[in-house]
Amino acid sequence: MSKLTRREFLVTSAAAAAATGMGANAFAAGPGAAGADSIKYPIEQGATLRVLRWKRFVQGDEDLWNANIKKFTELTGVAVRTDSEGWEDVRPKSAVAANVGSGPDIVLGWFDDPQQYPTKLVDMTDLADSLGKRYGGWYDVCRKYGTKDGKWIALPLGVIGNALVYRESQIKAAGFDAIPKDTAGFLKLCQALKAKDTPVGFALGKAVGDANNWAHWLLWSHGGKLVDKSGKVAINSPETRAALEYAKQLYATFVPGTLSWQDPSNNKAYLDGQISMTANGISVYYAAKNSPDPKLQEIGKDTLHAHFPIGPVGKPSELMQITQMMVFKHTKYPNAAKAFVQFMFEPDQYNPWMKASIGYVSQSLKAYEKNPIWTEDPKATVYRDSASLMLDHGHEGPLGQASAACMADYVVVDMVAEAASGAKTVQQAIDRAADRAKRYYKA
């Protein structure tokens, strides 16, 4: 690695595995990994950075994040302050910063939040191209989320994988050896679990990750979609009605209270033994496995993960939580900010961070599929393929201000919640969702 000064930061991939202790061959990035495409950013005099990110669900994530920040500061002299906010709070605080032109320099945001204010963000195409060439390329879904008009306006840091989290013993007690591969069988499983007084629970409140992820899967698995390829609202369809009729049956198997669940709620319900199955990242398993409480340790041993079943559409239709690093143009130190983003993506930082997080955030660059975290514990393997499996929430339609606004406004989640709970008829829920979506999609 080139000598680092306090004013100049140069990362090369020649040190690809030096600090991981896992061996260079484990993370070989293929041709171009020798560092020829590394980027040099002359860091501004007196630079400091403020980063806004979501609060961790896995302690190892926060610990390694802070350790990597300390390394960056030691190498560059740039002091970095991290502000951690609740998942639901990052989006509005980021939007305020974009609108007023002040606040954090860097934000770890959600989904296509960057698409709501692309002109307020620093172009990171050079960095994205360099990282992609050196580390196996970006997954297609990450490229779609991170780019606008051919330019990278944000770099997807990773995907918080979402999968079915379930108690193996309770599934077997209900008469099933594994999670059914189809939605019809899945409903029968949930009904059998309810009959055994071991209900399931899926978030239907304002949960940025959990509610959006499973509600979109439900809609897409039946062939429904919010908009068509041209961006015209297409939610009023037989496929959507079929999805919502299915949701009504599924909701009958839920534990009470899911209409108000936010992202931490199903974690608590699962660990409290209130539910036998939910949809979540690996954080539930992590909490149980590493708890000093023997009861929680037993839950960890009994916990397995699986992909969502395939619906009538005949193919995987999963949405997962993508988080993106974006740099605002109002920053006084754009070079320092880009150097920080690059630093966090390099193997010396990224691999140990994924490992410490036990795979809570899966990779956005393909070379990191080789991280041993995905095979050391077979219960983590399901989450490895998150970026290669998931759809973006625009689905057939374009990503942009309209899709971001509909996601932020919980249009799909509210539709599913209203129909499933009986607060509205299926058609009333669809009509309301269509009217709300048309406020954003003008096509």
UniProtKB/TrEMBL annotation:
Its main location: periplasm. Residues 1-28 form the signal peptide. Keywords: Signal, Sugar transport, Transport. Pfam families: SBP_bac_8 (PF13416). GO terms for cellular component: periplasmic space. InterPro entries: Bact_solute-bd_prot1, SBP, TAT_signal. It is found in: Periplasm. Belongs to the bacterial solute-binding protein 1 family. This is ABC-type sugar transport system, periplasmic component protein. It comes from Herbaspirillum seropedicae (strain SmR1).
